[in-house]
Amino acid sequence: MKRNYTIKLIHTTHTDIGYTHRQEKIMNFHTEFLKQAIEISEKLKENENFIWVCENFWEVENFIKSTDEIWKERLIKAIKRGNIELTANYLNMSELTDIPSFKNKIKKAKKFAKKCGQDMDTAMTADINGYGWSYAQAFYDEGIKYLFSCIHTHHGMYPLRKIQTPFYWKTPLGNKILVWNGDHYMTTASVGINAPEVIWIKEKNWELYSKIDQQIENDYEKLEQYINNLEKQNYEYSCIPLMTSGLETDNAPPNPYFIEYIKKWNEKYGKSIKLEMSTLKGFFENLKKESKDIPTYSGDWPDWWTDGFGSLPDYTKMYRNAQADYELLKEIDKENIINEKTREEIEENLLLYSEHTCGYSASIDNPSDEMVLFSEARKNKYALDAHIQVQKSLDKILIQKGQQLLKTAQPLIYKVINTSNQEIYEIAKLEINYWELRFLEKGYKIIEEKTNEEYDYQSENFPRGIILHVPLKLKPLEEKILNIKLDKRQNSDYYKPIKLADGIYDIDLNKQEYNTFQITPEYIETKYIKIIWGKHGIKNMIDKQTNTDLVDKTKNYEILEPIYEITPNEKKLIPSTHRRTFGRNRRYINTQINRGMIKSIDILKDGNIFTEISIKYDLKGFSYYEINMIVYKNLKKIDIILKMNKESIWEPESVLMALPINTGENSELWINKGMVNLRPAIDQLPGTCMEYYYVKDGILKIGSKNSVLILTPDVPLIQLSKPKYKNIKLYEKPSIEKNQDIFFSWIMNNIWETNFKASLGGFHSFKYTIVWDDKLKNPDKIFKKFKKNRNMITIRINNN
After folding, report:
1. Spatial distance between the Cα atoms of 380 and 764, rounded to a whole number of angstroms
2. Residue 59: which residues within 8 A CB-CB, separation 6 or more?
3. What Cα–Cα distance (Å) separates residue 189 from each residue in 55, 247, 269, 761?
4. pLDDT band at 78 (very low <50, low <70, confident <90, very high)
5. Is the pTM of this model over 0.90?
């Protein structure tokens, strides 16, 4: 070693909810851990030091909820003494996290810390492999200056290609937080300073067996080697932070025997390597005193591990639906009809589902084990509870806005509301129950009550009746009352470009006579778009206004083409061992890539508003795979409903949908990640993942000739490369070539070997929307506009 060092031991435990035990039991564990830490600190002798760092505020919040006033007061005293440190992160979150809810938890944490006399400005994470750029802004906005990161490089990687080093992370708005790019949260277990090994054993009497003296001898040699390796990467600080756990497991208790361990270590080796317990804030304050030129980096920090939520596609879809509807709820509930307690419960369930742990540790090797099944059900319940709470709350608000619940002799009157402060043009959907249809058999029309204006519409069957689709333009916050009135004429719903008894449309029509709309077995054409089918999907998508093909022919895939990957376990390895060989790849050298083949194209519905087309596929791994495509005749918009019945397979597999979009030269790909819109492979931290990304609202590709927006409300992942096994390239500098690569919607996968779900089997459905226009040039405005389009609400009201 080139110098003497002080090892700053951050004594904490990694919180994995549902990974080692039942979720509620882990909650009890962490409450008990805080009690133990309090008791240890109260028994300290003179000149003894013990510090327990709370990895997150969730454990403190549960302690406050579940203990009496005496315990709360003891906790506050321990914090004021400096024996327990509070930190700001709520849990170790995935990128699915609802950022406004996350910020509210930070506010709550800071409020409690202030009560305890602590100026909270520090957060830590452990295990997870990235945070998303929104996190940096969220922390800064709430007064958090420091973030300590403990990256786990299993199927992931730390940024900067270097650990145990600081950097300033510039936020999307140009602010900065100081990050310590730390080592694994159990580094001490592998490089020295293991948790002191002690155990009580009863022989004649209970005796405490300790291996501390033996441990110290072995640990010093390993720690010295670790420090030598740090020096080779030019480590420049006198202090080295190491996370240390009370036991070699996640969800571990505090270990009072560290007091003895540290004392004996320092007596023997303290002159060259001194050990001392430290708070995170204490470490950062020391770092700033020693800091020289700390570099600044700006951009996204993609989480390598968010792909695990692809193993829970249905509940992740439910979570995203609840998240979107909660955003709507907050916007329309101006009168605070929904109380603070209900909002807190919604936010807590959203956060608990998006916490990084999906299930029990044995989920892949023993998928039928009851702990695996019970843990998965509890995880899914967070999404379910959030969804139920949001829907119940929306129902309550809409009743206040005039919604009439079911009753006999109910009038066919609807209120359509634009809840946003900008103009929107969208399709209002009016539901009519099946028992009401007999009154409308002779025809009907839709009239606006105030102006008596008549609107076009088109009907669609749904299990409880029909839905009338009505295109409407609404001014900011405008409301329109629509009446369904009897009209003895042919409904606009029955419009056909030409009537053919067999229902097969295979005649070229006179474009002038039929307003350029055509359907044939080869293509569908509106006044805006011509879609030509290929073997796998859409091989041409001609924007008729710009005369450009929106399909990128250079990528050798077709739009909407399904891809199914499976990696056979040829060596008959244990399932988890098989998956572990993937490394940072999400496929292996023997992964089989299967491309879906179209077997039929049928017209399900044709009217004056839209045509709905069914595309059925032959695809390995599926007994049923269908895309319903709704092509609007007077909008530059296509809705996609993907439906499937997936066979249950234990081996690693993935399902993707190709989106080879062409928008002309000098194109840029943008994605929305909540609070921020960014360009993959351009707006990133060095050394981060460029293979796949979390997406919140959608994807926008802007080019010289056109722009295409794809909204992905149900599926949160995209891959940005062709599906093949390769060495992984990390981001180093802006790459326009990589940004313009083909991207795929990554619908589901079961690739991970622990805690994520083993089987993807069953029925699933997912929605997408494709919009194109050469005027879609500003990502911030575009994502905001189409997000607001979701804010059209249609409710049925009474005639008074």
Report:
1. 16
2. 15, 30, 31, 33, 34
3. 18, 9, 19, 38
4. very high
5. yes
